[in-house]
Amino acid sequence: MTLSAELPQALWVPHPRREAGAAQGTGPPLQLTVKPLSVDGLSTRTDKRIYFDWNATTPCLAEVRQRIDEVLADLGGNPSSSHAEGRAARAVLDDARARIAGCLGAAASEIVFTGSGTEANQLALSLRRQGSSSDDRHRISSAIEHASLIEPLRDRMASGEQVSLTGCTAEGWVEPQEIAQAMRPETDWISVMLVNNETGVIQPVTEIAARAQASGAVIHTDAVQALGRLPLHVDTLGVDALSLSAHKIGGPPGIGALYMRHGLELKPMLLGGRQESGRRAGTENVAAAAGFAVAVDIAATRQPRETQRLTVLRDAFEAELMRVMEGIHINGAIDRRVPHTSSVSFDGCYGANIAAALDQAGFAVSVGSACHADDPRPSHVLEAMCLTPGRCRGAVRFSFGHATDRIAMERLLNVVPDIVNRLRSIR
Ligand SMILES: Cc1ncc(COP(=O)(O)O)c(C=O)c1O
To answer: Which stretches of the chain drop beneath a pLDDT of 50?
Structure first.
């Protein structure tokens, strides 16, 4: 199977963390004889795998690794110390903070480094306008948020706090009108993600922010899957707060950031020292912050071209699948998605079985969020879209990044129909 797009030659991503053949998924064990791959005369590369799970994490970029090594080799001081070694570490941290802020159109002092996107989201939960002290808070968010936001919100609901979770359309986007209808006089916090991690659907955050602005509520967006996929500018978006994570854009794992507009305050989750201007205690990970800044710079520079390139590839991939197969559905609004994600449901199959068979064949894909890989329940995102149970069960998330090229896509297309047809035949 070939794609017509004129694109760069194959770039192979080394074997990810798991051992080859370690099938993942929740369905019954499946024995498949996968045909050797042969595309355009290329020999089978048994020692290499192809990675289609870029929404779960991305390989750390060489430039990022180099910067991290430099910082670890050169700096020995604690950025909170006042001696020369401490000041040198502080300068690197300040530079990273300023660079990340610059890419968002924010001030450096509005960035708080965190240990992950998860932590940034949970820190954001306590944001409020300075001086507003009412305990009668009402928060609004959506049913399609990442677990790192939805779970703590559910926890707060269970302990009696006021939270409304709005639904979404069958195409996977949150209607600004629904958010507006959920608003009450005591609503002081609204959060809707910018790009959904399972479907890639871009949410109407700007419209939601515009509607909510007059109320004075804090508007937060989880931009973890938007960074490097869309231009991000906090004033254009109209948001007060935004969460980021480095490992989704070729940065190191274990570092994220929360942008919080001047005039907001938060309740620190970690208490202790005065690091991060008293917003997060604990010695900062200077090397990871420096690597994160490099990754943000590269992502911002590459984004327009990558968006164009991956749109061509993703569209060709989906068109070819639809051409050769029956009973498949693309999940999420076709024309409102980032091109890095393709959520496809296959009738009559378990997505987990397809993912396991693809894993055996050398392809890394997922059925949804990586943090729910061992959870047999259907995706809360696809359920919120009111897709049929069969369509929820049959979903596979293919996600793409800078090393995804035409040949990788062709190889994937060469095996997916075969695997799905075999699975359908053994039902
Ligand atoms: C939309 C979204 N938000 C938050 C997170 C959590 O980020 P991290 O893995 O850095 O904790 C993820 C990770 O998958 C995500 O996709």
So the answer is: 4-46
